[in-house]
Amino acid sequence: MLLLGWTLALLLPLLTESFTISLQSTDNITISIKRAINTPSPSCFICAPNCKDLSLEISSGKTVNYTFSCKTPELYFIMEINRIINCSSGACPLNISLQPSNIDGLNRTFTWIILTSKNNGLVLGFSSPSLRQIHPSTLCPDLVSYKISTYVRDSSYSIGTFCRNGTITRIKVQEKGVIALSLPWNVTIKDPGIRITNRSSIQRLSIVECTFHQESLINLLSANYPNPFPNNEEMTWKFVLPENHAAIVYFLNYTRPMCKKKEDSVVYRLPHPIFLKLMENQPANIPGNFNFSLINCEVDQQMTGHPGLSLNFSITVQRKNRDNVSSDTLYHLDLTKESGLIVRIGMRPIALGRSFKPDCVICKGFGECYSELLLNEAKYYKISFLCGNVTANLMVTAEKKIECWNLTICNIANMQLNIAPSLLALPVQLESYTWKLIAPEYISTEIVSKSMYLQHNVTDKACNTTAAGFTYDILSSTNKQQFKIGTFCPNGSIEKIQMRDNVTITLNMPRNGDPKKLTSHDLYVSFVSFIKEECIFTVSPKTKDTIYLQTPNWDYGLPDHVSVSWSINLPNKQSGKLKFGTEMMDISCEVNHAYVKIKEQIGDGTGVIRREDEQLPGALDMYSAFWVNISNCKPWAQTKKLKLSWSITFSQVSSVLKIILIAACSAVAVVLAVIATVCCIKKKKKQIDSPVGIYNSKVNTEAPRRQAIFKKGRKTNESHIYAVIDDTMVYGHLLQETNGTDPEVDVYRPFEGPMGDAPPVPPITFPNGSMREEIKDGSIKENVKDENITGDIIDEPIGLSMKDNEIYVFSQSISRQPVENEDTSLPYMDDSRSGSTSI
What we know:
The protein is mainly beta. The protein is 7% helix and 38% strand.
């Protein structure tokens, strides 16, 4: 076993590659092979020739053969190649090459130490490739890096760490310069692309020259970063820009020293020098080539623990203004009459994957420039833009708060939501304009569109944002939550929206939108009496087109226990066919029930109620204004929320219905004539002491309107029976008799039924789960489930309670005898938008 071990030890060197390094005496090169930092315990050795060495030194004029005792020496060893280049005796134009050239297999660092006199400066050229500066703690993507240093009074200071493929073409240093090129073990390059020349003294620590060929963004660091900049020294950056380009300088981070003499500062030569402090606003959009210098003061060395001077900054180079916006033009922004308004002008979001991010600044006047500018209310501004493409790269957003905590003071009613006119005069597009409406508790908000009306952006009919020019996002909010009412655009059918809580309205402009289309914006806001529902929509279609509606918060579903109503008016002489998009609500309730209720806005109009476990009605024909109310429960599955959509298709009323409508109007005229006659009789009756009849003030004064209610004839429906009558002929002599018959006497009974001035409320739910609807005479009617539409009609009878001390008796001449079982009822038809008509 021991013999086998000795045999492997002798044969192992023969299994690895052998290296030979030969250095000429004139090369001034020294090579060191040493242990890498933080490597595992020694298990690999250098064999030169004995396999026991952990390091190897090769000096000029020597030739050395060596190998390693392991197959992966790159894990344990590194190589440093140091060369001294002496330019003190005269000019030394020199293209640096990698010597020796046959070294590979280990991580290598080539270091060139260039010497010159104190009166000369060194120019280190990096033409191919140029360099890009990085933070000292980061690595280059290809692991090939350059470190450049210089000496000041025998102290070494780092100019920076650099990667390949950048904009830095030359670095000038005073006295001695050091270049270190690091290569990984598996990378070999033929030409490092370094050229050295000596020049006259530069009288400063260094000059870094950056040459730009296109739009670019780079980061630069002060010498010795993040450590302090050398005491009482100056460093300069020279920027060479292509034609028709400008530069913007941003200070990303800096620290300042505690100065003993003079003061730290920066200076721009444009070409005249401009001296500024680090905390001051720096120039923006500098046209053409320019120099930028960082100057340190004489630091107080006794102030230990102070960070000293350091600077991290970026420079963006981009084309000058390519649109018709001039950097010499001042734009006036008048916000003196605006209250609660904040305007932001800043960069548009940049699409992912773009290699260059353009930069723009907005200036107050021509001096104070910022990448983002916030403008406050009640002020007057003069601003200018310094940007390659203002329209494409900048945008304007505005937010205005309209608060009212005391209605007696602010009294906001029918107030127009205006856009500050001067915002539309800017060359930057208005991206969004937000109004936040904040009202006292138990006060609701009403939004009205007087001319354009709003279209709900629904799945069945999306808004055409290009044609509309803009859209609105409307949100309802409380201190605890908010949800989106919806997205709306102009030219729709929604005239008014009432919301219970605070409201946020955001006007959004599409990219490259036309600001001229904002002339159609006409929203008005009022603070109104509190409503219990979350919101109420008033829908007033202007055309015969089909309209589409859906519940709010469509993306997430209607919140729990929220009730929403739609008051839908029909166009003149039009009927509407309502049809839901689904057959069921598709939810299961844990607490309470969800309801859909449809009710005509007249006292005895059609009513339909459906619960979440019932099938929604089919197509419904509506002949007058009606309500749609949707009330949500708390579903079992919170991931499955209530979503309902429906459409309303309009059509002309048929000729038969027109005749019925004319008949209804005639009946109304007859009733008015009868009331006038009653008034005359009452005036004369005041002379009679004994009462004849008692007036019932709670009886309906409106003509019967639906055949579904009054289907009996005159003799069978008992509508002619007197409440109280003592003498039927007391006033007979005042009326004209016909054919010798006695005058027909009747009692005036005023109408008392629902007038359609409020949305329908959900029915009462009893503990046993039944759903019943209370009516005014105290009786209770069960809601009968029937798929036939006529089976869904809910009639509300008229109460007949009496009231004393009011005497009304009227007579009517009859030209013919009444026919047995004649149907004298008048069918309901009313095309008015207000709902019912009181008589």
